Amino acid sequence: MSNLCENINIPPCIWFEGDSRRNAIASMVSGFLFFVGWWVIIDAASVYPGTVEAGYHMCGVVGTISLIMVNSVSNAQIRGDAYEGGCLGPRGSRVWLFLGFVLGFASVIASCWILFANFVGSTVSTSQWPGVGLFLQNALIFISSLIFKFGRSEDLWG
Fold first, then answer.
1. What does the alpha-carbon distance between residue 151 and residue 75 come to, in Å, rounded to a whole number?
2. Are 86 and 92 in contact (CB under 8 A)?
3. Residue 67: which residues within 8 A CB-CB, separation 6 or more?
4. What is the rounded average pLDDT for all residues in the chain?
5. Residue 38, exposed/middle/buried by CB under 10 A (0-12, 13-18, 19+)?
6. Which among 23, 55, 96, 97 counts the fewest CB atoms within 10 Å?
7. Cα separation, 152 vs 158, whole angstroms
């Protein structure tokens, strides 16, 4: 019974084998998700003026800073292979990555909090789309950060 699947050959996915294509596809998907996230909140703010307060946009700004922080550190730096200098070395890059993820999670949690506290549970009859747009923006930015960080190979980036 263990020899049943030994002779099955699954052809490799040729269009996704090259590291340069993998990096390009991950970068394009990540950039598109980042664009869609900001487009959603701009749409919500323009269609429903006055419902999205200026402070709500800080969640998206913090998410964007998180994206920059997470993707400014390569996996080789985290492992300690390519980063020997500085005052903290690989430990500093790990702390930087951790703080980037904390900021990303914080922006998603804060936007979820704003969605349920001010738009879903509100007794005032306003549209829920601005709150949903705020949550979608931060979720898409966080997913974009993860795709760009873990969806590419390290050969071309560091």
1. 12
2. yes
3. 34, 100, 104, 141, 142, 144, 145, 148
4. 83
5. middle
6. 55
7. 11
Q: Cα dist. 135→29, 40, 60, 66, 107 in Å? A: 19, 10, 9, 16, 9
**pLDDT at 115 > cutoff 70:** yes
The amino acid occupying position 17 is: E
Residue length of the chain? 158
The pLDDT tens digits of the residues spanning 75-85 come to: 777 777 766 66
Q: Which amino acid is at 110?
A: A
131 or 10, which is more confident:
131
pTM of this prediction?
A: 0.80
CA dihedral 67, 105, 120, 41 (to 10 degrees): 0
Structural tokens at position 86: 């500085």
Amino acid symbol at 114: I
Q: How far apart are CA 84 and CA 80, in angstroms?
A: 7
- Comparing CA positions, the residue from 29, 16, 20 lying closest to residue 147 is 29
The distance from CA 93 to its chain's CA centroid, rounded to whole angstroms, is 18
| Residue range 97-112, pLDDT digits in tens | 999 999 999 999 999 9
d(CA 147, CA 141): 10
DSSP label at 3? Answer: T
